[in-house]
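Final report, closing paragraph on structural work. Over the funding period we assembled a curated collection of sequence-structure pairs, and we close with a single example.
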Amino acid sequence: MYTTLISVAQLQEMMRLTQPLRVFDCSFELMKPEAGDAQFEETRIATALRADLERHLSATKGAPDAASAGRHPLPSRQKFAQWVGSVGLTPDMQAVVYDRQGVNYCGRLWWMLKWAGHEAVAVLDGGLPAWVAAGGATEHGVATTPSSMASNYPLAPALAALKATESVLKQLGRSSQTLVDARGAPRFRGEIEPLDPAAGHIPGALNRPFTDNFDSQGFFKPATVLRAEFEGLLAGRDPATVVHHCGSGVSATPNIIAMEIAGLGRTALYAGSWSEWCSDPARPVAQG
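Its predicted structure, as stored:
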């Protein structure tokens, strides 16, 4: 079972042995949402299924059963389980997620499956570019999900911790909570804000841009390097107190994965993130 990363060679071997498997293409473009579908139809890993950030991995804004708010609210676990079942994933299967945007989006599905109680999910290290470079089998065109694949996915106890705004606010400034913001440094400092109504960050948060987790080839850095970098960032703070966030709870997930690779445990996600936090002007904001 693969629970954090899977290499191209390991995935090819699983396919060769026809082991129970579902591969998900999570490609997405934030400023052009329809582009992900076009990319999927242009080139994808053979047998991959589509997992779209907005259609499959987010709730409709304002949905009464959404599990978070912000720009990409989480659907309820029940709604997510319905979709997981519709594409034929069962608890005994290995799930593999990838994108072509540097793990910017597929980490969301990795985290959500953990949240649904599915431990056997891993990110394809290097994503689609690594798969293509290694000569992995690809296909193109419109893909369909056979109706015979559909099943009822049984939710299990959550294997990932979700934090709500009220919890984050209550713990603000306490040693029991260490906020880590995955946005780029200019947005964190409040110098620019292209998406949300206010610029800045949650007071006391540390900044770890999610792109810092990768080498120049798009692979996760070695565990020893990631551990040293996160320990330097935390500066003695307990890793178990970390709560990750970003703009809308999507690009924070590579930091969660990286800490787990580094042997620092599975840390929590504030899915509403900055977009939910700054939606109420009464909540404090820091800049610089």
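The chain has two domains: 5-149, 165-277. The two ends are 43 Å apart (CA to CA). We thank the funder for supporting this effort.
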